[in-house]
Amino acid sequence: MEEPAAVTSNGGVLLVDEIDTGLHYSAQTSMWRLLMETAERLNVQIFTTTHSWDCVCSFQEALGKVSNSSVGKLFRIETQGEYSRAVVYEPDELVVAVRQSVEVR
Amino acid sequence: MSRVSRCSPHPYQLLVEGKNDMHVIKNLCKKYNLKEDIFTIDAPEEYNEEGIENLLKRLPLKIKESGRKTLGIVVDADENITSRWQSIRDLLTRSGYSDIPVHPPSNGYINSKVYANFPPPLIGVWVMPNNQLPGMLEDFVTWLIPPNDQLLVIARKTLDDIEDKKLDLYSGPSRCKALIHTWLAWQQEPGRPMGAAITNKALNYDSAEALAFVAWLKRLFIE
Questions:
Q1: Å from A55 to nearest chain B CA?
Q2: Contacts of A93 in chain B (CB under 8 A)
Q3: Who contacts B180 (Cβ-Cβ below 8 Å, separation ≥6)?
Q4: B48 plus B141 within the same structural domain
Q5: Among B8, B54, B118, beta carbon nearest to A100
Q6: Do B19 and B91 fall within a single domain?
Q7: Are both B152 and B77 inside the same structural domain?
Q8: Across chain B, where does the E strand assignment appear?
Q9: What is the pLDDT of residue B1?
Q10: Interface residue A54 vs chain B (CB under 8 A)
């Protein structure tokens, strides 16, 4: 995998839209691990979006493999009329969601 | 890798511990003309995901699910209804619900508090068999057998006999499972599961508990 953009964002914020686009699902866990470890090492906060269940599963799998699972969270944006809010899913909730196939998108 | 349904979750859903609960409730709904599209029943697909512990883990996620309007929960009281209710109450409180009674109402619980912005889904809880007694789905199903049924008397006596002879391999709380499955084994179509026995009219008694359960479903999902 090429050097991620995160390495040039030291101490800052990296935004990635539709992060799984073009990536085979089997490569996604490695991608997440690399991003999580790099983010922690370089103190970068990464915001990414996805609509893909495969991507959610690989995110959860990667959280289980890195040393500090609290490094990542999932937010679902819920809209009601003109208001929106973020619904938070902690890593332990994602374990249940993936194992028991509960929708988080 | 686990899979989710290709379509969005139904806004009105009933959360149950396992497939037996799902089939019994589905067939009760048919019997009492509750249409299938009013709500769906969420039961674990895998046997090792069944049971109360998994349901309690799934519950907060089902409350947060996108588009959720109403969530009904059916759990077994098992041996201690007070502690079972308390664990549900704690989880609901943590998910933002309030005004939940200390004991489950006998006709089933429905949270009626009105919330302002982003109201959480309407929540209902039924504790098998009747929100009052310890027990489980199988106790409830036994109440669908007419009280004067001859085979039920013999099935009870048979269990008494094997317990006297210490031949029973089941634990005390599982006695009602042994009873209902013994009784089902002696019907016109032996060995049909509980849900199917409701459809084929072996289990056909309109007990007060069955009517109360159906009334709770209607209050939660229709009214």
A1: 11
A2: 60-61
A3: B138, B141, B142, B194
A4: no
A5: B54
A6: yes
A7: no
A8: 12-16, 40-42, 70-76, 109-110, 122-128
A9: 46
A10: yes
Q: Does the distance separating the beta carbons of A99 and B61 come in below 8 Å?
A: no
Task: Give the tokens for residue A96.
Answer: 């249940």
Report CA B3 to chain centroid distance, whole Å: 25
* Nearest CB neighbour to B66, from listed A54, A96, A103: A103
Q: Is residue B2 part of a domain?
A: no
- Let me know whether B144 and B132 are in one domain: no
Q: What is the pLDDT of residues B114-159, one digit of tens each?
A: 777 788 999 999 999 999 999 999 999 999 999 889 999 999 999 9
For chain B, the domain total comes to 2
Are B132 and B148 part of one and the same domain?
Answer: no
Give the tokens for residue A100: 């028991």
Six-digit token string for B183 = 């009784």
What's the pTM value of the predicted model, to 2 decimals? Answer: 0.91
> What is residue B75's three-state secondary structure?
strand
Token output for B135: 């027990």
Q: Are strands A13-16 and B109-110 parallel, antiparallel or unpaired?
A: unpaired
| Residue-range definition of the domain harbouring residue B186 | 137-199
Q: Do B187 and B216 fall within a single domain?
A: no
- Alpha-carbon distance of B4 to B85, in angstroms, equals 29
Please give the mean pLDDT across all residues of chain B.
Answer: 92
Residue-wise pLDDT tens digits, B72-120? 999 999 999 999 999 999 999 999 999 999 999 999 999 987 777 788 9
The residue length of chain A stands at: 105
Q: Which domains does chain A carry?
A: 12-99 (3.40.50.300)
